[in-house]
Automatic annotation (TrEMBL):
Its main location: membrane. The gene is ugpC. It is an enzyme of class 3 (hydrolase). It is found in: Cell inner membrane. Its EC number is 3.6.3.20. It comes from Mesorhizobium prunaredense. Keywords: ATP-binding, Hydrolase, Nucleotide-binding, Transport. InterPro entries: AAA+_ATPase, ABC_transporter-like_ATP-bd, ABC_transporter-like_CS, ABC_transpr_MalK-like, ABC_transpr_MalK/UgpC-like, Mo/tungstate-bd_C_term_dom, NA-bd_OB-fold, OB_MalK-like. The keyword Nucleus does not apply. PANTHER family: ABC TRANSPORTER ATP-BINDING PROTEIN (PTHR43875:SF14), MALTODEXTRIN IMPORT ATP-BINDING PROTEIN MSMX (PTHR43875). GO terms for biological process: carbohydrate transport. Belongs to the ABC transporter superfamily. One of its GO terms (cellular component) is ATP-binding cassette (ABC) transporter complex, substrate-binding subunit-containing. It is a peripheral membrane protein. This is sn-glycerol-3-phosphate import ATP-binding protein UgpC.
Length: 366
């Protein structure tokens, strides 16, 4: 059961959404603190954009309530919710200049002309688009268009900003640049922001907290490093991390009062592992991230083994080395200066304290 925040900026309470007999969102509960940056993360079809659209008022919920700044907005029109939304597509008016695009909503709302000019000037300065105000969208790059789309939400002067995968149409370099700009924007404004993405790097770098979703259910809601280091289940562990966490299928055994994880000829002592649930002998999954494995570093680790190199993947600053451990795929991240050759026999070592153990049947963390 989640702990509710006092005076949250946005509060989602027992929210469900059904399309006929199909359940899309299932009894979701999230409280977003004032000025917090929350990222909704998950694979395609997990319900993250659907949840954002419910918050925005673009979809009617089947059950539950939505509060923004303490006001029940569950059935309010989008324009009355006090939110600004940035979509995946830029959705700019091609015949209008940047300035006209920014001011259009304000003019329709009857905002005084001098107030409109003040808001546009402020947004243009924050987003560094002052030189672009008299251009039309066709004369802008993708990154510039997305800045204008963000500016259109910014001029509304709202408390809550909703972002629906705003960087997914940009190339990798532009995504990295805009990611930094969004983080700086949040630092300047201190507004509440809810951001949808399937990109784990965006989630890890932007979020104060991440809500990892699967099948319309929030699997884990916590700080990025907590989710990365202590995932609540195998799905969360496998979804975050590039390369992905190593998983070994095996079983838990107890010998002379000491627990071990056993997979074929591999026997990993678990004396340093902090069990969160009372372990019982039986099928289990052992997970450890590639960067937590030492490579050709000698003894001194609670667990050491030798393994054969199968594939070497140079990545520039580092290298991914694919091994066979317990006859299962196992990846180690090494520096580019220590790259082995295919078919080499190498040694590895790690401390199970950095690992995660999961129940084989349910996938939950042990």
């Amino acid at each position: 059961m989640m702990t509710r925040l006092e005076n949250p900026s946005v509060s989602i309470q027992d929210l469900s959404l059904n399309f006929g007999a199909i359940s899309v969102l299932e009894t979701l509960n999230i409280d977003v603190a004032e000025g917090e940056f929350i990222v909704l993360l998950g694979p395609s079809g997990c319900g993250k954009s659907t949840l954002l659209n419910c918050i925005a008022g673009l979809l009617d919920v089947s059950d539950g309530r939505i509060f923004i700044k303490g006001k029940n907005v569950t059935w309010e029109e989008p324009k009355d919710r006090g939110i600004g939304m940035v979509f995946q597509s830029y959705a700019l008016y091609p015949q209008m200049t940047v300035e006209k695009n920014l001011s259009f909503g304000l003019r329709v709302a009857g905002i005084p002309r001098d107030e409109i000019a003040k808001r546009i000037a402020r947004a243009a300065e924050i987003l560094q688009i002052e030189p672009l105000l008299q251009r039309k969208p066709s004369a802008l790059s993708g990154g510039q268009r997305q800045r204008v789309a963000i500016g259109r939400a910014l001029v509304r002067d709202v408390d809550v900003f909703l972002f629906d995968e705003p960087l997914s149409n940009l190339d990798a370099k532009l995504r990295a640049e805009l990611r930094v700009e969004i983080k700086l924007l949040h630092s300047k404004l201190q507004n509440t922001m809810i951001y949808v993405t399937h990109d784990q790097i965006e989630a890890m770098t932007l979020a104060d907290r991440i809500a990892v979703m699967k099948g319309g259910v929030i699997q884990q809601l916590d700080a990025p490093q907590t989710i990365y280091n202590r995932p609540v289940n195998r799905f969360v562990a496998g979804f975050l991390g590039s390369p992905a966490m190593n998983f070994l299928d095996g079983r838990l055994e107890k010998d002379d009062g000491n627990w071990h994880f056993v997979a074929e000829d591999v026997r990993i002592p678990l004396a340093t592992y902090a069990f969160e649930k009372q372990p019982v002998p039986g099928a289990a999954v052992f997970g450890i991230r590639p960067e937590h494995v030492a490579f050709n570093s000698g003894s001194g680790w609670p667990f050491t083994a030798t393994a054969n190199v199968v594939v070497v993947e140079p990545m520039g600053s580092d290298t991914l080395v694919w091994l066979k451990l317990a006859n299962q795929n196992f990846t180690v991240r090494v520096t580019s200066e220590r790259t082995p050759n295919n078919a080499d026999t190498v040694s590895i070592g790690f401390d199970p304290m950095r690992a995660s153990l999961f129940d084989a049947a349910t996938g939950t963390r042990l």
